[in-house]
Predict the 3D structure of the following.
Amino acid sequence: MSDSVFFTPSRRTLLKLGGVVAGGAALAACSSKAATTGGASGSTGTLPGIGNNGQVGKGRTGANADTLFIAGFQWGPPTTYNPFSPTAAWPASSNVMQIVYESLLRWNILTGEILPGLAASYKVDGTNTVTLTMQDGVTFNDGTPCTAQDAAFSFNIGKTATGVSVASFFQAADSIEATDAKTVVIKINQTTKNVGQVLQMLCENYVVPQKVFSSLAADKVSSEIMTNPVGPGPFKVDTADQTQVVLTQTGSYWGKTYYGGLPVMKTIIHPIFKGNEDANLQYTNGGLDICQTFQSQIWKTWEAGKPTGTYLKAKPYYVPGSLPMLIMNTTKPGLDSAVVRKAIVTAIDYASISDTAMSGYSATVQASLILPTGAESKFFNQADATANGWKYDKVAAEKLLTDAGATKGSDGIYVLNGKRLGPYKIITPTGWTDWNASCEIIASSLKAIGIEVATNFPQQAETTQAIQGGTFDMCVWYVSGVNPSSPWARFRDIMSQSLMKPVGTTSFANYGRWKNADAEALLTAAAQAADDTSKKAAYDKLDALYRKEIPAAPIMYRPDEFYEYSAVNFYNWADEKNTYAPPMFRGAGNTWMYKIKKIAG
């Protein structure tokens, strides 16, 4: 799941129900063995990239030995592979594995490094332009050339087509054009001067064939049904139905030279499960090679002798990449008080959320909109977060209320300035089990200090409407995750004044309708900062304002992707000891497709 929701439609699929149980697509379990010398054809010594318990399977034979079985990306029968459709099926959906459609650049969640994609290189001229040079010999899977003209067209279509997410590119860029068959020049918007925002979209948006999409009327671009996607990636859609999606190699991929060969697997099969439970069962039983689902207590799979693995070998097992937020509607009586909001965030038992709701997959969150680890850590101010932030302290939370003059009624609920602190409802979609559990913990924590809160879990569509329309009290929702424009994009999502809409009007930022006279200037300064030193200074000011006002608060550090593999048929998976690729199934993580090795020769 991508958390870059400001630019792309929400496609939270980890816990979404739909489709039918895949029939016969996944394989039965393979028995495991210790990964020592001779454990695979041609191997010497201990094999790299295997199960967390040091186990591997025996491998598969025949065509199945050359097949990669995956799950967690598609949860219903595919209807269209049109990447501009808000309901595009995997692998045409936004910001997923780049195996049919590909982006110009790729991004590494561990280092923040931007790497080549369809573009072999890029050059940034201050805050004026970004120039990209295309790789040699790029073709679409129908054999036609993929040129700089196709790349520029893939963004310019957002100027005329209605309802396509790439249209937001022109909030950050004034123009994009191909100056020749291999060169793309982007002129950065000189009002915003936000280079990171431009680079983010170059890493996340796909290049499509101009000859296919230029024939569509502008109002049909996002609604056109496509069953045979034409992209520059190494795979094409072979067959798809209500049980599975099958991809096969094109055999003539431009990246053969760049990567030193074609992908190890010749076929990729994605069974379509009805929900997490079925996918997790197949993963545990050896029927999947990679999985991207929330699994409670995943360590029990390798403790049971299964050759399952994660990137990190100890808790939290996954690399954090998103910050689900408790967002408070500051137009609501009581919640319009910064003191009440600080009492709320001080009352929350974050450790319980991590241990119970997230199976320990999250460190205890800190008082910041910046992740303290990974690519964003260079901007994190630990001293300020400690001195001026908050942490779970029930007594301190209640003292904040009483010091502000709040008095507790006979019903145990505080009243401040004539405003009773509740009843409030905290919402998040039904079926988002880890977030549902988080809401219950938050509600219980707040009741314990005299704030009346109940949980409510509507369907996703209803929840989205309430949050975007500003009619909620409190919610657990997502904002921008870690990407080339973060943490700026996350501050914008929480604090933007220019993107905020009145209650009752759909907004895609500042859902809590928090108003502040200083925020927009600070956001602009951070966006336009030219180097890490000036960015750090700007983020220090933004985070200080955030800690003072607290319009929202992170409740957990969630993985960018649930990077899970099983060494039943392949080994040499990327992990913290085998660091050739980050824990990503997309972007810079694509390298794993060329580096894994078959266990059976």
